[in-house]
């Protein structure tokens, strides 16, 4: 009897494998095989110079040495990080403030769902179209310049994309605008998860809302803040659409707004597969390490 | 507490004052978020000559004319919208359905490789597709799938992040007892999944359908590597083309209309379903 029942369960459980077939097959073909080809390519010299095809020749770690020593990776990595930080710092500050306000029961904000709807909206907008919009608005003859001239703030149009600060600033500003709503909602969910008895106890003790925020909310929010930080960092490393469209792929001025993925994209188009491979492996290792942190984080509560 | 009095006087800003401050900041942020879309709307109703004259906050009357110019212009925006819709809708349906199926396999059944596969999917969840783009493009070339939608649609079947969302949802909404009851009634396993479990998953499926559609509609990096013929290009590629073209020769009214057309569908969908979407954001991430 027991044996019959067991075989019955086993019979059902083979369906677990059957239901997994589509995922495993597609993942294998379109993710895993490309990953191995990418790693494989990183060890070969393989590019086109004019009409002459060089390679593929096995060169060991030469491609990795090249992208680090010719300054490409250090430059584009720091560009990416600077623009990410410029966007992330205001984003997290605004999100913490809004999250605290939205989840504060004493404050009782009206129209909270309206505000949440509005601040989340930029997150869903096509980044390339948004960047194109900003490009037209901030171009030399665009509305922002003509508005500033009309108001008498400047006499000559300010060339936003010819200055490092303003080009990076625009990218960071757009990223901040697109993501602060998302971060606010995540942090708010975290704040609502905090035991309300703690807040009540603090209130009874006469703590101000500033004290409550720094002494209770913030420490208890640490895991979620870490999650937001790491996922945003992974997203930041993927920064592409906005600077690509804004600067037409050249990372102007003087490549100071060129990100790692823009550089990868450039090599993929010019068919320099060796360097593109090395760059991909570098990115894979970094995002892999960051993913492990997120992974630890998502699984720790299930234990 | 020695400093409680001090708090009451200075640190304890009155609730009314804090509320006013909160509203001011929220209104400023609302303006900051909506201003760009307002300018886009205004500028798409103005003619090129008006646009060159300077900036105003009032709409003009050239929207129909600009739209007509886009329709008869060189850039196949409407074909692009159709292409984007085909890709985004198909990818969204596939990734939602098959992620639910994958999550179902892990949630309902007990088999040897279960833990390993679940761990693997979670571990690769955050790794961006860009890092395998090189291998992906060469694979697509080898399979002769360049300029087709297949490499943009089929890979959507394996979507770890959507899988994780579905798995989380199943844990709270799909008790094993339901599946067992169906078994006793003699329902085959695939039928239990399709006719009993999927309907229970409806809310999660709807949220993921929207998110997946939007993500694919907006995707620029992969389509740009796979599609290079005009008749298959999706909207983001056309936007990039608009950016690369000699800017000053363009009729700016048309540029604004083209941008408006590529973001309008998402905004319309969002405004209809916003409560749903905003509510769904936090669920998939971490348990508070």
Structure at a glance:
The complex is a heterodimer of chains A (303) and B (288). With 303 residues, chain A is mainly alpha-helical.
Describe the structure.
With 303 residues, chain A is mostly helical. Chain A has a single domain (61-298), classed as MetI-like (MetI-like fold, Orthogonal Bundle), CATH 1.10.3720.10. Chain A contains 13 helices and two strands, in the order H-E-E-H-H-H-H-H-H-H-H-H-H-H-H. In chain A, strands 1-2 form a two-stranded antiparallel sheet. In chain A, strand 1 and strand 2 form a beta hairpin. In chain A, helix 1 (2-41) runs antiparallel to helix 13 (273-300) and helix 4 packs across helix 7 (164-192). Chain A is globular. By secondary structure, chain B is an all-alpha fold. Chain B folds into two domains: 4-65, no CATH class; 75-244, MetI-like (MetI-like fold, Orthogonal Bundle). In chain B, 72% of the residues lie in helices and 0% in strands. Chain B has 15 helices and no strands. Chain B has helices at 4-11, 15-44, 48-53, 63-71, 77-108, 114-124, 133-142, 150-153, 160-173, 176-184, 189-200, 202-218, 221-226, 235-244, 252-281. Chain B is globular. Chain B starts with a helix and ends in a 7-residue tail after the last helix. Mean pLDDT of chain B is 87; it is low at 1-11. At the A-B interface, helix 1, helix 3, helix 4, helix 5 and helix 6 of A face helix 1, helix 2, helix 5, helix 6 and helix 7 of B.
Portion of residues within helices of chain A: over 70%
How would you spell out the order of helices and strands of chain A?
Answer: HEEHHHHHHHHHHHH
What's the overall average pLDDT of chain B, rounded?
87
Largest sheet of chain B: none
Order of helices and strands of chain B: HHHHHHHHHHHHHHH
Shape assignment of chain B? globular
Which two chains touch over the largest interface? A-B, 117 and 106 residues
CATH topology tier name of the largest domain in chain B: MetI-like fold
Instruction: Tell me what the CATH architecture of chain A is.
Output: Orthogonal Bundle
**Which oligomerization state do the chains in this entry correspond to?**
heterodimer
The number of domains of chain A is 1
3D shape of chain A? globular
Strand content of chain B: under 5%
Largest sheet of chain A: 2 strands, antiparallel
* Sheet/helix structural class of chain A: mainly alpha
Radius of gyration from the alpha-carbon trace of chain A, in angstroms: 25 Å
> CATH superfamily of the largest domain in chain B, please?
MetI-like
CATH architecture descriptor text of the largest domain in chain B: Orthogonal Bundle
Give the low-pLDDT segments of chain B.
1-11
CATH topology of chain A: MetI-like fold
Strand order of the largest sheet of chain A: 1-2
């Amino acid at each position: 009897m027991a044996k019959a029942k067991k075989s019955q369960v086993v019979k059902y459980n083979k369906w677990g494998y059957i239901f997994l077939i589509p995922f495993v097959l597609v993942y294998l073909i379109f993710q895993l095989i490309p990953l191995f080809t990418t790693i494989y390519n990183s060890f070969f010299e393989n590019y086109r110079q004019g009409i002459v095809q060089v390679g593929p020749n096995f060169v060991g770690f030469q491609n990795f040495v090249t992208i680090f020593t010719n300054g490409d990776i250090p430059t584009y990595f720091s560009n990416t990080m600077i623009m990410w930080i410029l966007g992330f710092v205001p984003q997290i500050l605004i999100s913490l403030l809004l999250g605290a306000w939205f989840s504060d029961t004493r404050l009782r904000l009206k129209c909270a769902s309206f505000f949440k709807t509005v601040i989340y909206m930029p997150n869903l907008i096509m980044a390339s179209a948004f960047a194109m919009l900003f490009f037209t608005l901030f171009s030399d003859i665009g509305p922002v310049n003509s508005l500033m001239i009309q108001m008498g703030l400047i006499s000559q149009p300010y060339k936003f994309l010819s200055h490092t600060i303003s080009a990076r600033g625009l990218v960071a500003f757009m990223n901040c605008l697109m993501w602060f709503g998302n971060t606010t909602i995540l942090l708010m969910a975290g704040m609502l998860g905090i035991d309300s008895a703690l807040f009540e106890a603090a209130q009874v003790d006469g703590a101000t809302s500033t004290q409550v925020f720094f002494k209770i909310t913030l420490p208890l929010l640490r895991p979620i803040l870490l999650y937001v930080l790491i996922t945003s960092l992974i997203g930041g490393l993927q920064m592409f659409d906005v600077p690509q469209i804004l600067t037409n792929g050249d990372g102007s001025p003087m490549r100071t707004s060129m990100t790692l993925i823009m550089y990868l994209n450039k090599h993929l188009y010019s068919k320099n597969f060796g360097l593109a491979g090395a760059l991909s492996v570098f990115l894979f290792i970094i995002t892999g390490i960051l993913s492990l942190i997120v992974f630890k984080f998502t699984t720790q509560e299930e234990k | 507490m020695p400093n409680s009095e001090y708090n009451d006087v200075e640190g304890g800003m009155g609730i009314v004052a804090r509320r006013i401050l909160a509203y001011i900041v929220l209104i400023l942020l609302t303006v900051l978020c909506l201003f760009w879309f307002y300018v886009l709307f205004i500028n798409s109703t103005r003619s090129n000559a008006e646009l060159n004259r300077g900036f105003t906050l009032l709409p003009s009357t050239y929207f129909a004319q600009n739209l007509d110019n886009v329709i008869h212009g060189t850039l196949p925006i409407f074909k692009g919208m159709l292409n984007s819709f085909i890709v985004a809708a198909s990818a969204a349906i596939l990734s939602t359905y098959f992620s639910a199926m994958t999550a179902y396999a892990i949630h309902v059944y007990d088999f040897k490789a279960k833990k390993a596969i679940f761990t693997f999917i979670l571990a690769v969840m955050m790794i961006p597709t860009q890092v395998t783009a090189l291998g992906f493009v060469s694979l697509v070339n080898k399979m002769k799938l360049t300029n087709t939608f297949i490499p943009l649609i089929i890979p959507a079947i394996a979507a770890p992040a959507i899988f994780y969302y579905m798995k989380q949802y199943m844990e709270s909404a799909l008790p094993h007892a339901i599946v067992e009851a169906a078994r006793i009634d003699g329902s085959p396993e695939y039928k239990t999944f399709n006719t009993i479990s999927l309907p229970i998953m409806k809310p999660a499926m709807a949220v993921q359908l929207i998110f997946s559609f939007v993500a694919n509609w907006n995707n620029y990096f992969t389509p740009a590597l796979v599609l290079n013929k005009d008749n298959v290009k999706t909207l983001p590629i056309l936007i990039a083309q608009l950016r690369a073209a000699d800017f000053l020769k363009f009729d700016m009214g048309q540029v604004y209309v083209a941008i408006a057309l590529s973001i309008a569908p998402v905004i319309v969908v969002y405004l209809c379903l916003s409560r749903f979407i905003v509510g769904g954001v936090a669920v998939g991430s971490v348990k508070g």
